[in-house]
Specification:
Alpha-Beta Plaits, 5-stranded antiparallel beta sheet, elongated
Amino acid sequence: MEITFTVSVPNADFIPFVKRSVAKLAEQVSIKGFRPGKAPQKLVIESVGLDRVLHEAMDEAIPYFFAKEAIEKDLQVVNRPSISVEEIGLNTPFRFTATVEVVPEITLADPQKLGVEKRDVSATEDQVNQELKHLAKMRGTLSEVGREAKLSDIATIDFQVKIDGNTIDGGESKNHPVPIGEGRFVSGFEEGLIGAKAGDNKTFPIKFPEDYGKNELQGKQAEVTVHVHSIQERNTPELNDEFAKTVGKFESLTALKEELRKNITDELIAKEQERYLGELAESLMEKSTFGVIPSSLIEHEIDRRMEEFTNMLAYQQKTIEQYMVEHNTTLQSMRDTMKESAEKQVRIGLALRKLAKEHNVTVTEKEITEEANKQLEHFATADHAHEEVDPDDLREYVASTLRNTKTLDLLNTLANK
């Protein structure tokens, strides 16, 4: 929502800004007979010009009086104001008009009527057994075999993937280990290795899925040529009391299973709580009423998402330009795709902010300091932390995170009264 209001500053309140402006300019000009900064106000004004003095004073006065007026009007401003000066002088009031986007009026829904249900969760026997198998696999050994490859073996190969006789980008590797049956490669690749032995050369077809990550490969038929260096089989330890003792301080397989059951259940409970709080916040947003959402808030959220996505690509050693070429898209198209979910997130944030304000949710400096120190403990040394983290940015991030956590906890409490 955009509003416009006029601020009228009495001359007596504006003159101190003029005097500070004159004092600052006096240091920058040379006036015969006076040391820098010591010339009378009148001579400084005559030397630099009244317009420059008033302009300097205005630049300092506008932020101060705009903020003062916004606080008095209880406005939640979301961007920099557009300013139009109406009157300014040494002997007149200072008047300016400000146009700015503000947080819209929000009428929150009743937290007790959000209709989100908690679910009971606990580890199943199958989940416990799967985790046991994973532990056994991690502690297993590999041994080279002379037989043909089968599921669960690991084949070390050289390979080339070609389409129409041309090797595709990234489609060639040497001495590459391939776990057969884990689905890490395009469908048909791992299956094509079944039956091969060390020393074999083999050629077989694969087809890239229609939703493959690279547009130019989607749905394409390809040919894979491999040379097999070795076939290894996994030697997985037997799941018994002796195995349990190798994992930790467990006297029996039963004790290990109970610990796994507890850990899996704790993780499921944490995930369920995250889901529940997320759906509570979304329901609060959906059942509340909003005024017009400022477009700048939505654009800012899209900017944040684009920055996150760009950083993610950087970790993959890709640029946003490369991604756009691979997916035949544009920056604007990407932003348009994000717009709906970005607006939804903005609405959720505004609803939670309104709830926090109504219930006076605050975060103390002590809480921020304690949490910031915990974050810094993840760095090896204080010097490393200083190099990697801006203290002000960290405190701002921590304060926002703590406030959000407290607000969601409040929403949870209100919904379950």
